[in-house]
Amino acid sequence: MMRQDWDIYKDRDVTPKEMFLNRRQIMAGGLGAACVTALPRGARAEALTPNSFEEITSYNNFYEFGWDKSDPKKYAAALTTTPWSVEIDGLVERPGTYALEDLLKMVTVSERIYRFRCVEAWSMVIPWSGFQLSDLLESVGVQSGARYVGFTSVLRPKEMPGQSGYSGIDWPYQEGLRLDEAMNPLTLMATGLYGEDLPKQNGAPIRLVVPWKYGFKSAKSIVKISLLKDQPLNTWQALQPKEYGFYANVNPQVDHPRWSQATERVIGAGLFGGRKETLMFNGYGEQVASLYKGMDLRKFY
Ligand SMILES: Nc1nc2c(c(=O)[nH]1)N[C@H]1C(S)=C(S)[C@@H](COP(=O)(O)O)O[C@H]1N2
Ligand SMILES: [Mo]
Predict the structure, then answer these.
(1) Residue 166's pLDDT is what?
(2) Residue 31: what pLDDT?
(3) Residues flanking ligand 1, CB < 6 Å
(4) Oxidoreductase molybdopterin-binding domain location, by residue (predicted)?
(5) Whole-model pTM?
């Protein structure tokens, strides 16, 4: 396989022990030799320095646990994540409810450092571990009528305080991708970060990561993946369709109705030094721009 700029280790699988060692390298050196990326032709030569484990796990959006950025870390411990299974249904050759450990035998887990850009105009860089969604979809077999993939997060009102009582959100949290977006090699099902199992506030034990789209597309704690004929409604679009669409591609030229998307606040960079220009497709245009050829991205926001 051709090496990509999101590979932080050279074309190999990472065992749990290696991940632990790598985590120590990342922690100790910021960007150790193991993190030097090989860039495809024409890619911007930019080394991504990950945010700290502390930053990534204490400033979160996970409304099932509350609306404050500090709520997920405070309350997520109550979520039981073992055992866990993921139902795969719809237009698929081998539908079923897969125990997470069985599902992980069908795929290859590796590590990738990705930019992460929230629609609220803040950003981080996150060292995920996970597998390509395409890997899973290929092994369960997508039927020819499938055009979209839907994702459903867990519904556990007893364990998730934001799901009991009034929140305005129609739980469970739902997201969706076009099938070609889901099959893009960048699209990850994350199971860890910094070489450790995914912390609960980040969507344990398995969450979606779509690095060229606003963060809300990256649904957490997923219990169902559905192969669909029609475009599904996603939670934020259902709630506020004028502000949040289905595509949600990071785009500095298309502002949110209430704020600019031209720049972003870099989490961890301090109060004053920390804004940078937002990149088209969050910097992944070379890998994904062709998916949207001929589309009016103002209309399909
Ligand atoms: N189930 C679920 N998934 C979710 C959310 C949520 O509230 N519930 N928030 C989304 C938003 S708005 C963002 S920015 C990211 C945040 O991921 P992080 O906390 O790991 O940085 O998760 C996304 N996935
Ligand atoms: Mo977000």
Answers:
(1) 86
(2) 35
(3) 60-64, 118, 153, 173, 202-203, 215-216, 218-221
(4) 81-236
(5) 0.88
- Is 93 a known ligand-binding residue? no
Nearest-CA neighbor of 111 among 201, 202, 207, 191?
191
The average pLDDT across 269-282 equals 88
Element housing 27 (H / E): helix 16-29
For residue 200, the CA-to-ligand 2 centroid distance in Å is 17
Q: How many residues does the chain have?
A: 301
Mean pLDDT for 17-23 is 45
CA distances from 42 to 4, 45, 154, 176, 286 (A): 12, 9, 40, 30, 8
Tell me, what's the pLDDT at 8?
Answer: 44
Q: What is the mean pLDDT of residues 160-180?
A: 95
Instruction: Compute the C-alpha angle 251/253/255, nearest 5°.
Output: 85
At 5, the pLDDT band (50, 70, 90 cuts) reads low
Protein residue closest via CA to atom 23 of ligand 1 = 216
Determine if residue 218 is labeled as part of a ligand binding site: yes
**DSSP-derived secondary structure for 123-186:** EEEEEEEEEEHHHHHHHH-B-TT--EEEEEE---TTT-GGGSS--S--SSPEEEEEHHHHHSTT
Q: Is the pLDDT of residue 24 over 70?
A: no
**Would you say residue 248 has pLDDT above 80?**
yes
Atom in ligand 1 nearest the alpha carbon of residue 126: 21
SS3 at position 216? helix
Q: Count the Cβ atoms, other than its own, within 10 Å of residue 99.
A: 13
Q: Is 35 annotated as a binding residue?
A: no
Q: Please, what are the domains in the chain?
A: 10-292 (3.90.420.10)
